[in-house]
Amino acid sequence: MFWRNLSLTRAAATFFSLPPRQALGHRSSRTGGCLIPNRESSGSRYNVPPSAEFVARVSGISTMAKLPYRETADGLDAAFVGVPIDTGTSNRPGARFGPRQIRAESALLRAYNSGTRAAPFESLMVADIGDVNVNMYNLKDTCKRITEAYRKILATGCIPLTMGGDHTIAYPILQAVAEKHGPVGLVHVDAHADTSDVVLGERISHGTPFRRCVEEGLLDCRRVVQIGLRGSGYSADSYEWSRAQGFRVVQVEECWFKSLSPLMSEVRAQMGVGPVYLSFDIDALDPGFAPGTGTPEIAGLTPIQGVEIIRGCRGLNLVGCDLVEVSPPYDTTGNTALTGANLLFEMLCVLPKIKYY
């Protein structure tokens, strides 16, 4: 068994060193019994998810899309990074296991987006850089650790694609993002506005990140949209504070029974050419589609609408994205994490400089 595994490791190492089209098993010809790939790419070498034609999906160490693991973001254009916390949750825990389960379910991802013909792995150098080493006993210290980690990532010029973790993480991430880019626009997809001031006496939780961001000047409030908000509230207008800051609030009732492509045309115009951060809470989706989350609300968005929102961000100056609040213990099928993995892939496909066929 050891030697079989060693052989597989060597095979995988050889695979990852191949040019993209060769590794993916693109059209080829046979000469003298050898498989000769057509070299249709420029010769530049990028990290590419291995094809299941050659590498079994169930094999190997679990990374996002089975991409190579890297210690740092140096030399990367985009990186998948996990922030495994749920110490900011107010209801059901388990989001600390989100990054791990998203990675496991991401083994099904392939190199091209068949819907949009995006070729992210022919455009950007991408890898999985592991998880932020969070403090499970101290949320404030965890926030400091997150900010410090993202400062280092952003300093390399890399765009982070984050796997949460509860939504608290958006606050320290945006601290680092705004340090580099200044106040950013925000596309926030969620069942909840996450703009509470104090929860149980605490100012930092998954219900408060965007209130803190506004207070610290991290957001360009004229370029903030919140999509999918719903559920019962503590007042007749739960989103009054958001509107007062200048946010565009799109409650879920405005989304029912329709395509969100027209909405996203308006959002692109609102965002303009400035830097934009995309934050997607999986509970924006209806719990019938994504039950594995901490604070589910009925009558939510469909996965199709979630994809429409992300694809509608194509052309924006995206400087970071996150997918948060996947709680695997509440979905033993793995479908919530599978959906999260695919939404993260869609985010990768709309980053600046992505090639489309």
UniProtKB/TrEMBL annotation:
Record's superkingdom? Eukaryota
Which cofactor(s) are needed, names only?
Answer: Mn(2+)
Per the record's keyword annotation, is Manganese included, yes or no? yes
Keyword Manganese assigned:
yes
Which species is the source of this protein?
A: Xiphophorus maculatus (Southern platyfish)
Cofactor info, note text: Binds 2 manganese ions per subunit.
Chain positions recorded as Mn(2+) binding sites: 167, 190, 192, 194, 281, 283
Q: Which Pfam families match?
A: Arginase
Q: Which UniProt keywords apply?
A: Hydrolase, Manganese, Metal-binding
* Similarity remark: Belongs to the arginase family. Agmatinase subfamily.
Matching PROSITE patterns, A to Z?
A: ARGINASE_1, ARGINASE_2
Under the heading SUPFAM superfamilies, the entry gives: Arginase/deacetylase
GO process annotations (BP): putrescine biosynthetic process from arginine, via agmatine
Protein known as? Agmatinase (putative)
From the Swiss-Prot or TrEMBL record, what is one GO molecular function term? Answer: agmatinase activity
